Amino acid sequence: MARKLWIDTNVIIRIVTGDPKALAEEVGEMLQKVEAGELILRITPLVIAECCWVLASFYEADPKDISDALLKFTNSIGVETEEKPVIQQALRDYAEKNVDFIDAYIAAHAKANPPEDVVTWDKHFKRLDIRHDRLGNW
Prior knowledge:
This protein is mainly α.
């Protein structure tokens, strides 16, 4: 039976960027165990959110590239992602609708867990096709 490990953002960043090389090589050894079926990597939605932030702010990566890399990773054999359908929809919306990942996640989460109504002042929710309004208007 494969051992399951929760992974932190910095592990995924090494996988996606290969930077810094020494840490990426260490992660590569872990990935060999995943490919051999010895390990299963587990990811929380918060880790995905932090990955989006680090890749966009520190690495100045484009949201489409971030989305593509994280979608590929969350679909990898030996990777379990909490709320996978929600996370993957949020990653697609993040790239396609030019919104922050957190807003995309809130909208995808609300759609998956009705009611879909979101209280916010953020106008980006218009792009996410979800009912939203200020608190006083409900």
